[in-house]
Design goal:
The protein has 182 residues and is an alpha+beta fold. It has five helices and ten strands; from the N terminus they run αβββββαββαβββαα. The strands form four sheets. Strands 3-4-5 form a three-stranded antiparallel sheet. Strands 8-9-10 form a three-stranded antiparallel sheet, with helices on one face. It is elongated and about 65 Å long.
Length: 182
């Protein structure tokens, strides 16, 4: 059985991205202590009422009033930063897009690599497990802009404002983001 809004408020108190026990429930759950543990994958987990929960999902329930049906994304990509302002409910696809570069990435930009055969920068993008070639260039910045243009054409900017291509383009004055009207 899934934990309820009432139960999460009974068990925990929220403070700055952490859940603290409201009462002592055993030697590992002492009133006022931070609940849970950080697993090797970097995500915090809490075991209560014989169930194991990801802390960020419990925080979502605590603050928003419902258990999320979709993924909860950590906007800044830090899996242990569970402040509510760093969390958003998104589709699985959107959550997978908000990831940094893989450990094998040598260019610093997802979807851009140097072809060792002819020393051209190649831009590509993967959509629904299919890889699409976007273009090649001797100029790294041009390849980054090809990748960024593809992300924008696909509407990925609505999902992730933090892609490596976008960040590189902004940092190197290749792209000026629109001003947020907030």
């Amino acid at each position: 059985m899934q934990i309820t809004y009432e139960r999460v408020h009974e068990l925990f108190q929220y403070h700055n991205g952490q859940l603290m026990w409201t009462e002592t429930r055993g030697s590992r759950a002492i009133k006022g202590d931070i609940a849970g543990y950080v697993a090797p994958d970097g995500y915090s987990r809490i075991k209560t009422d014989k169930n194991l929960y990801l802390t960020h999902r419990l925080i979502w329930l605590y603050k928003k009033g419902y258990f999320p049906e979709n993924d909860i994304d950590h906007i800044n990509r830090n899996p242990n930063d569970n402040r509510i302002e760093n969390l958003r409910e998104v589709s699985r696809q959107c959550n997978l897009r908000n990831c940094g570069n893989s450990k094998n990435n040598s260019s610093g930009v997802t979807g851009v690599y140097l072809s060792k055969r002819d020393y051209f920068w190649v831009a590509h993008i993967c959509i629904n497990y299919k890889d699409y070639h976007l273009g090649r260039s001797k100029d790294f910045c041009e390849a980054v802009l090809l990748r960024l243009a593809a992300e924008q054409c696909l509407g990925w900017g609505d999902c992730n404002h933090n892609t490596p291509a976008r960040n590189y383009a902004i940092e190197n004055c290749l792209f000026k983001p629109p001003i947020d009207p907030k």
